Amino acid sequence: MTRGVDVDYLVVGAGATGMAFTDALIDHADVRVALVERREGVGGHWREAYPFVRLHQSSMFYGAASTLLGGGRIQQEGPEAGLHERADQPTICAYYDDLLADRMLGSGRVELYTGCDYVGGREFVSRETGERFEVPEHCRIVDARYLAPDIPAETPPRFGVGDGARVIPVNDVVSAEHDPSQYVVVGSGKTATDACIWLLARGVDPDAICWVRPRDPWMLNRAKIQPDPVIYLGMVADMMGAAGAAASLPELFLALEEAGIMLRVDRSVTPSMAKSPTLGLWELDKLRTLENVVRRGHLETVSRGRLDFADGSVAVADDALVVNCAADGLKMPPLVPIWGPEAITVQPIRAGFPCFGAALAGYVEATRDDDAEKNRLCPPSSYGNTLEDWARMNVLGLRNSASFNSEPDIKDWTNRVALNPARVPPEHPASAELDDALARLAANVGPGVARLAQLGGMPDA
Q1: Angle, CA 20 vertex, CA 96 and CA 401 arms, to 5°
Q2: What is the CA radius of gyration of the chain?
Q3: Whole-angstrom distance, CA of residue 169 vs CA of residue 156
Q4: pLDDT tens-digit profile of 292-319?
């Protein structure tokens, strides 16, 4: 038997993007929505994230448009005093549970189906009972899984594990029963840096940590990515100024480092990765105490006392605990039109802020009728990976911003939504500093985008 579910939208995936899209949609359209999630609750990968994780960006940039995550609080103590709060895993999970209860289920217009898989053909199925559900022909399918991240807790290691080797996902490092004489942290991105910082905070000697770093990353200085238009727009203005004058992408990143925008752990190594999470200067100082860094490409096999790579082996302690931090946290499938004939495929629109992109897509879906017009206003943007990917991501994001901001109602809405890092809130006081940031941005963005497009191998707009 198949049970009918009478809704106007079927949103597949109740993680950050699915929740942000649904929140904006029901805020601006009188529609009914079914949320389908394979896990047992909302919040997506946050429900399985490692327990010491925090957002790498301000809480204000994350979540849904209607409800501020973290209340806009400023940190009052610690190494990030003066910067905006970054939510931890329990706070994020509680936020999504409350958003579901208060804004969605409480509205009477959203139904949640957990523990279910969407199987296509407008049907989804309960994993536990096998019961099948079907939505009507007029219902729009919203795919909020297209860029869903892989996380180590749910992904097998990418390397082989030999007899006697101790390998755990990063989640399990907090509950490891015995402290080994050596930790081996595998990964180049934010998860690996978080693991290293957590170990050092527990008092692990830096010499007892071996960091297998296949690629060195460029990271953004967190102090420059703040929900303050003077700071954020000033940073973008400086970035575009440097881009317009850059002879090459490596030269551009060095200029951004000198400007205090980009960071790298080892100044003797030129990074090839630019996924660009944010990093605190205090974290950078700690990471620089780690001297046992293995740069031999991707790890192929772990055995007792040995790490194997394509070009040879590296010895480690016999009791080494290998902490797997490697997974595709940022997916890079081909960009497709967000509004397609089969589904609305949620993707970033402004570079690097997926919750804002999802909320913007929900607002545009609620306020426009023509899919071609929606796609014109809101093309998808990509994520960064290589330096060229980073350049293309920023070009697409800035071009898209010009597109959607050409519509007065969208511009007004985005300026009122804290998820938008580039907004100037209506209540923000005028100042000479803000005028200067806006003037520099206006002068630099055109030449900067044009040069980034050249450096990224993109055709002219």
Answers
A1: 145
A2: 23
A3: 9
A4: 999 999 999 999 999 999 999 999 999 9
Answer for the pair 359, 20: CB distance below 8 angstroms, yes or no: yes
Contacts of 239 (CB under 8 A, 6+ apart): 256, 259, 261, 394, 448
Of 448, 416, 95, 420, nearest in space to 249 by CA: 448
CB atoms within 10 A of CB 105: 14
**CA dist., res. 110 & res. 115, Å (int):** 16
| Residue 168: burial class (beta carbons within 10 Å; 0-12, 13-18, 19+) | middle
Of 12, 22, 335, 8, give the one whose Cα is nearest residue 144.
Answer: 12
Q: Which segments of 68-154 does DSSP mark as H helices, in order?
A: 89-98
State whether the Cα torsion 81-82-88-93 is positive or negative.
positive
How many other C-beta atoms are found inside a 10 Å radius of the C-beta of residue 442?
A: 11
Residue 114, phi then psi, degrees to nearest 5: -95, 165
From CA 11, how far away is CA 134, in angstroms rounded? 13
The answer, as to whether pTM is greater than 0.90, is yes
Report how far apart, in Å, the C-alpha atoms of 304 and of each of 177, 339, 402 are.
18, 51, 55
Between CA 168 and CA 74 the distance in angstroms is 35
Contact 264, 257 (CB under 8 A): yes
Going through 253-319 in order, the beta strands assigned E by DSSP cover 262-263, 278-279, 293-294, 301-303, 306-309, 312-315
What count of residues does the chain have?
A: 461
**pLDDT tens-digit profile of 96-143?**
999 999 999 999 999 999 999 999 999 999 999 999 999 999 999 999
Other residues' Cβ atoms within 10 Å of the Cβ of residue 167: 18
Q: For position 459, what pLDDT does the model report?
A: 82
Structure-block tokens of residue 319: 């009791």
